[in-house]
């Protein structure tokens, strides 16, 4: 079974998109995230995979009425982004699994399908972001996370993608299309 795990936070002012919030206001940035996430979830529904929400904060996210009720929810838990993504990948059933962010307006079904196709003959796949990070990370077999995955990654930097790939030493890694995430008003204006 293929699994797409979408990392989402409760869209409350001051909890999501705080860098964008410094530019346009915290309420407007939370509104943007809520509507962007809802549009993304509608766009990526596909019978070829199961969509799961990785929610934060755990209790609020599990009980939230913001997210579609029909989608399964897993609590992200504690730790840095790498800890949380590795945990979500470990929860995935056997088979290809991808984690995506909810703040990338360009993600669509063809992007995700290309990542799953790459996992047919690679151990891992990344969808690079223009800022040096990535919008997608996937493993050939969800539920089986490499021991050192995401060790020594410099998060929120231009080194995030290269550090993450380095944590998979010896693995066959594929890259798919580069997309833009939205962290600042400049990112928003370039859409």
Characteristic key phrases:
alpha/beta, Spore Coat Polysaccharide Biosynthesis Protein SpsA, Chain A, 7-stranded mixed beta sheet, 7 helices, 7 strands, 19% strand
Please characterize this protein's 3D structure.
The chain is an alpha/beta fold. The protein has a single domain, classed as Alpha-Beta Complex (Spore Coat Polysaccharide Biosynthesis Protein SpsA, Chain A). 34% of the residues lie in helices and 19% in strands. It contains seven helices and seven strands. The chain has a seven-stranded mixed β-sheet with strand order 3-2-1-4-6-5-7, with helices on both faces. Strand 2, helix 3 and strand 3 form a beta-alpha-beta unit. Helix 1 (18-24) packs across helix 2. The protein starts with a strand and ends with a helix. The model has no long low-confidence stretch (mean pLDDT 96).
Q: What is the mean predicted local confidence, pLDDT?
A: 96
Please give the alpha-carbon distance between the first and last residues: 33 Å
Beta-strand residue percentage: 15-25%
CATH architecture label name: Alpha-Beta Complex
What is the tally of beta strands? 7
Percent of residues in helices: 25-40%
**Number of folding domains?**
1
CATH H-tier superfamily:
Spore Coat Polysaccharide Biosynthesis Protein SpsA, Chain A
